[in-house]
Design brief:
By secondary structure, the protein is an alpha/beta fold. 42% of the residues lie in helices and 24% in strands. It is globular and about 70 Å long.
Amino acid sequence: MIIETIALNGYRNYDSLELKFSPKLNVFLGENAQGKTNLLESIYVLSLARSHRTNNEKEMIGWQKDFARIEGKIKRLNGPLDLTMIISTKGKKTKVNGLEQSKLSHYVGHLNVILFAPEDLFLVKGAPQNRRKFLDMEIGQINPQYLHNLSIYQNVLKQRNQYLKKLAFSSNKDLIYLDVLSEQLAKAGSFVLYHRLKFVMKLENWANEIHQRITYQKESLKISYKSQLDVTEDMSEEALFEALMKALKESTEKDLKHLTTSVGVHRDDLHFYVNERNVQNFGSQGQQRTTALSVKLAEIELINEEIGEYPILLLDDVLSELDDERQVHLMEFIENKLQTFLTTTSLTHLNNKLSITPEIFNISEGTIEGDGE
């Protein structure tokens, strides 16, 4: 798939803009704080209906503007698509080929993107919630029902925690409603857990192959899904439901004491092992970065395997964070394979690393010069 054109109105520092892109490599070149990442972000938002930089959607609306609009013309194997995202103070509105979508889960998945930013290099070493977010965003792109069930899980989890607090100040410890919430949580949670386990299994296969290639067969990579439950990747959704129900029942006393839900997919994590050694705790910074790079590149192959075409790759100033060897591996991997958008302050990192000529867009204070203008 490729983005042929994008049009922005009232989006951050772009009052009005329309660009035509190369189907291969597009470079957004300019100094910091000029609008490179804003433009890259608009592609991400067009795909996933949310920003990777902020949870405050009002920040994406331009100064003294009532709304921001992003429109993209997409070319996929099964035909062209027109996508529209409108962000206002009242919320978000999405359209596919001019038809408004009633739910975001109906919209997400029409345009698949993989973002690789400097913070992704800390995927291995960072906090568990970063790895859970990584799983949720990537699985959600290829399985809209995953996002739907994740949303249900998060809402029920909030209700359950609120009810636990309510019980703490009640003389009547009525646990019937708590059991109802636990069942609802286990139902949505078992769906989420089932698809996470399947995703991690496939991701590991690709990531290990890529990691071995990058390290010249010196290192192997394993990815393990860490749950508080005794689960395996071959368990059915029904078996996972039963395991979650049992764990929630057994943790009732603890949950009432601490006023929060102590077990569930909201507390799970990923562990990475290089040559059987936990790279999060014992790996060098180089091994951690190579692992992160392997995982991000594996995402690309996994999505292609799942949907039958490559996603779009967004590289947000990540080359400057990689050494020359990892830069070469990255650029060789993407060349002539998928449409890529790259932000950078200098073309130095691309010198002698490409056999194709990139489309370059020079960006300064929200204005753009380039062949695609």
